[in-house]
User: Fold these one by one.
Assistant:
Number 1:
Amino acid sequence: MAREHSTPTMADVAREAGVALGTVSRVVNGEQVGEEFKARVEAAIERLGYHYNSSGRALRTDRTNTIAFMIPNTINPYFALLVHHINLALEKRGRRMLLYFTGYDHSREIELIRMAQQNRVDGIIALSYNPSLTIPEDVPFVTIDRFFSASVPCIAADNFGGGYLAARKLSEFGCRHLAFLRIGSTLTNEPSKRKDGFVAACVEMGLPFEIMALEDGQPFSEFENFLAGHLHGGRLDFDGLFVGTDSLAWRIIRTLRKMGLRVPEDVQVIGFDGIRMFGDLEPVVSTIQQPVQEIAETCVNTVLSKHLANVPSLICLPVSYLSGGTTRA
Amino acid sequence: MAREHSTPTMADVAREAGVALGTVSRVVNGEQVGEEFKARVEAAIERLGYHYNSSGRALRTDRTNTIAFMIPNTINPYFALLVHHINLALEKRGRRMLLYFTGYDHSREIELIRMAQQNRVDGIIALSYNPSLTIPEDVPFVTIDRFFSASVPCIAADNFGGGYLAARKLSEFGCRHLAFLRIGSTLTNEPSKRKDGFVAACVEMGLPFEIMALEDGQPFSEFENFLAGHLHGGRLDFDGLFVGTDSLAWRIIRTLRKMGLRVPEDVQVIGFDGIRMFGDLEPVVSTIQQPVQEIAETCVNTVLSKHLANVPSLICLPVSYLSGGTTRA
DNA sequence: TTGTATGCGTTATCAG
DNA sequence: CTGATAACGCATACAA
């Protein structure tokens, strides 16, 4: 047959085992097959080093066992963490991950969705703040942190609860004048609820607070100006800061120290995300920790669920406080 | 035809455009087609929202345009960086990335290679120190940092040169007594040449030095004991440390500070990798920076090259020194 | 229970 | 330059 060098196919196995093609397929798929036949097929598979061709299977079944994960990048440690846990959750369910980087590029995201459809992925998990994204109808679609519509399930941390918790904690640790700092998309999304929870707690506790929010393009120096404007005689007006992300918190802390302020002695700082040094060492800052593993597993379970229709359209998962040395606890 | 809900196929497009199936294929693949026909096909594609099915194409052409990348995890920032640049390099070449985590598990790695073959990937890029890994013959295979055999191209940073550079830099910054600290696989691999380069430079400069190398399972406390044993009257025997990775360097620095030593005033420290805070801010420690982007692009170019046979079996890419505040420069 | 035969969507070969 | 048709490897409905 001259098919020596090519990888063996089911037909080859069938010939080798002296059975029919269909029987091989049944053995490979773990269906009921007579002992004798099964043994012969398995021996032939072993002998030939056969492994099934997933293109053929995909074409026939119209299922690729592959999920696309769209994320801005993998350099941001929080995104890297998500990739990690989503991949693990997918493997647990016998699925593969096709990884797409959006680079925060809106037109690219649209193109990537098209590519994912070409690849006939069984579902898409996306983290995108793209306001003009149209979600395809014909493929299960789940988003992280961004609510699109009731028909597109959104998985997120309890951002409101996190903001609330942060304010509570700062108060508990003795802070009397708080501020919330953030930079990000102007789009209303789940993370923007961090502020709302923070405000709710401050109001509830009767604590004075201020909000300083930058839009995506604005320079970091705006924060420096803001803080400098609140520095009087070497003392800052605030003794507790809640910052939108750990990444920003880190930069803010550097700025504070450059201004001669001590953290946490003079100002306590809580970030958001739960980033750890080198991924597994101590937290970078005191923080509200996202339940990344639960988020990942929920995404996977949701995107793979048979009936996307009767799945909740917004799932918020509980956060927790994690001390990282930038608070007095 | 009752194929309403299903995604359209080339046959549908052909019918819609009133041309033959083959003509549609030619248009989709950008082959020579008459103006009139081409226009009609493109219109039909637009009208139907057709996009090609890559399973069908893969089955037919035996090429998936997919490369598997095997890496321990994505939590380690260096690995995350690699994932990022390899994905970008693949996209530039029109390929997709299938991401597999090994978790440093040897048997898992073997299983993953099998899975990659099932998925008929066009190639595999792997970062693995598995000593018992057998590389498949029938799929292009490229490794990072680990040389298997002359027939398996290995891409790595110039680890020897990096070690050499580190010792040179420490000397240049005034160090007179150096030490090299490392933990890792006992297997001889590219990163283990960091020590060799370091030693070569020390010998060349006539500087005294010591080596402290732990194997993978050993506890970090061994380093603490080592350092404590070299502390006399509040002074450390060494004024310059070269540490195998930034991650370890970070932990070592914490230990030094706990011992009452100042970095870089009393001891200067250089790590290896080039990890930055949150992926894009300042370096975590002074370090020998890996050329991650070049490594990634070289991996991709190599694994996609037509004739793997006449590709060099070991490619070392130049490193550079990067100051991160733990040296006096 | 096992064998046979068809078609999934595509590309490539061959006639026209 | 275009149309028809045969594989690619597999799962599955149907026949034995």
Number 2:
Amino acid sequence: MSKQAKINRYNIIPMTQFEENDLTINYDSYDSIYGNLYIASTDKGICYIGLGNETEIIEELKKKYTNAVLVKKADQQHSTALSHISNPDSAEEINFHIKGTDFQLEVWNELLNTECGKTCSYKHIAEKIGKPKAVRAVATAIGQNPVTFLIPCHRIIRFDGTLGGYYWGLDIKKKILKHESLR
DNA sequence: CCCTAACTAGTCT
DNA sequence: AGACTAGTTAGGG
């Protein structure tokens, strides 16, 4: 057991409807150990990370944040996020500015408490948020997670030890887990 | 708006 | 393999 103090380096800021109506998003593409990825942020925090080509990412952002103004521009927050991806032990703080239902936010919050390098089951998460029966729902919520890599959805596997699914493909999931176990 | 039905990156029998 | 589960989402009244 590690006895390091539980500093929450990750902080979720739920996006209000008011904020969403007047939103500017900076996004840019970056090269990572998992390939080319896009990071997007508001002035408050990271709001999306995705793989794919620029058109797809923009489509995705437009769909999620209908009224947002998208600006292709590098951002300090992006580089912080990027360093976390290649080095999960980084101590820098990161804020997430994301939209989701109460339930989703609860689940994502719980994910952030899972220790790096460890894996745990969907059931475990469900129990932790006090809804042990809501496993299926937890899984769907995790699937909606807009900030892959940083919200460690890749650390969650099935109860029987098989990997389960992954939005960006199981290949990526395996890669991340390997990277974290080798670090 | 409310209601219903159809999903799901799971789990148990 | 099949049943079952709870929450989200989409479609109809």
